[in-house]
Amino acid sequence: MSNLGAFSMWDLFRGEVESQMRTLTDGLLALESGGPAKEHLAATMRAAHSIKGAARIVHVDVAVTLAHAMEDCLVAAQEGALALNPEAIDVLLSAGDLLARLSTLEESAVPAWVENQTSVVDHLLSQLNDVRTGKTVAPTPPPPAVPPPTPVVSRAPATATPDEAAKPALPQAASSVPSASVVPVAPAGPPAQPAPTTPARTSVGTDRGIKVAAQALNRLMGLAGESLVQSRWFEPFSESLLDLKRRHNEINDMLESLQSFAEQSPEGAVKLETVRRKVQETRLWAAEQQTKLDAFGLRSAGLSDRLYREVVASRMRPFGDGVEGFPRLVRDLARHLGKQVQLEIVGTNTEVDREILDRLEAPLNHAIRNSLDHGIELPDERVAAGKPLSGSIRIEARHRAGLFVLAVSDDGRGVNIESLRALVIAKGLATPEMAASFSEAELLEFLFLPGFSTAAAVTDISGRGVGLDAVQEMAKSVGGIATITSRHGQGLTIQLELPLTLSVLRTFVAEISGEPFAFPLVRIARVVKVNRTDLSTLEGQQYFSHDGERVGVVSALEVLDLPGKPNWSEQISVVVLGDRSTRFGLAVDAFVGEYEMVVRPLDARLGKVPSISAAALMDDGSPVLIVDVEDLARSVETLLHGGRLRGLGRGEMTQVTRKRILVVDDSVTVREVQRSLLQNRGYIVEVAVDGMDGWNALRAAPYDLTITDVDMPRMTGIELVSKIKADPKLNVLPVIIVSYKDREEDRMRGLDAGADRYLTKSSFHDQTLLTAVEELIGLPE
Description:
- There is one protein chain.
- By secondary structure, this protein is an alpha/beta fold.
- The N and C termini lie far apart (79 Å).
């Protein structure tokens, strides 16, 4: 097949199908929801016609036949010969899905695929003929069970890394629910999977996308940031020339004062005049050079600023690029559940970093499925509750205070707060007394816990308690926050507050131990000056009161393990970090101010630097470290539970003799259950979120025992045990493995690695875990 530049004809066919399928799908969904028939029928008919033409060019006869049959149906609808009901639209969407799947294949794989899909194609052609002639669509047996449907939003972006580009497209939802008198429509085989789409950004003209490696774009981003920083160095040079000019004036004044002495000697007068002339020439030259330097500096700064902004803009994409598959998802899942739901998307032109947009696919998918399955009621229930027959889901994206704010809301059942409180107690996550004191916002935070679900039963759509956990984890992974608000009987809203871009970070810089440290602005609750006299102590922890809230405060020098002594006067500068669930104050030496910084990743050879996430450059070119607030919070928690924090201005650390245990598990629920059991027995318990975090903690502080899970990211429990037993300083440390895996081979694998005990997680419900701990390290002292 001939090539056209760098693109083959098959590449052009693939691009044509991707583009036209978006038009086709949007038009069909708009027709079903009651949009202007004439306008949408014309658009969908043209899309089918374009696909047919592209297929004919690459000689794929089956695609030509299918697209032609779809075109015939749409032309008949244009002429008023038939009305496209939901069942007919099901058939047209299924045919489009098959064409989209075909376009994702390699050209060499097409003949074998066509032969394998003959029965599916024949059945679809029969159904399309029934649609065109106005017949009832022939019934078909339901397709095999498929995983929960997810939207086609994950695609290899123009700047995708190799790993991102290799991700397979997720299956599109397939409608399968009949109405009272219509049978479900489905192809006689696995549902067709549409191609991943890469929508082009639209503007007045037509933008042509090109592929650029993500690493190259990141390097370009770094260079643009450095260029911007370098351009700001002209300002000090300009100030130095101004200083030179001031010195010239001083010299001139001194020469004037010597005038009377020079007049007494003709030779002295000549020399004085010569010096005065030279000074004047030098002054004029300096003024001329300053003017040139100022002009050059302005041009350089302007050019660097434009380059910087263009590179930042190249990483941005409209939010609408990431949500094109959701109208189809909502439509198909609503039909599957027997519900009527309208999806409204607001803010599609809101710009957001391409990496954040790609990461939003799974959280949005989970949030929408949660609303469809748990939130929106069945039509009869909605009518009984005095609501419209059709439910609504709204996705809204906007910019606010330098952040990208995304809200997913529905008008469904909402959350019954008292039922949620009872469920928290029933799951053993809080005592009745503690649960009674929780506010509504605190109770709703439990919905983010892994494995926590309010669903009475698990379905193929939701109910396993993994959805909202994925939403929160995504938000945290990019330095944002997720919150839930709900009104019982009126609906629920999930809101994400995320940075606009991961390459440029808005930060607040503070000085600690004579060095600048940058804190992501999105993680800062406030910055305050606190009088020493306003500090109080409760249970060994210092705090101050602000707006009626107690805020614990710790020294940044101590948490970051930096040398030097705090430079505090009668007032202490405090950066308050965290969100509603975790908030603490960090006492720093001084505030520097707010800055936008180009994020530079740390060298991979450094490994994970405790409490530090990345680096950047200040305006004067000096380096600054960016604080990892999540890691910092864990360090504070470790010091607090270990009783090893010094008070602000106090002397030595408090000595603690109780036994200290490190719990390593990637499940927050399991960690908290183990912590609660062991703390109630009297042990000091600290936690790590995975094997790597646990390994860093073990090297940083002494422990009497480690309890670890097996399956964890970054470093498994088996790898952690092996490292502990191979380290000459740690090999005597007792280790207990606690895992869901209860097979004998799993137990032997853990013991062979060096674990002293291997328990299953059912041991939480009896004395097995506590007995094992006491056998290994004894009772807490």
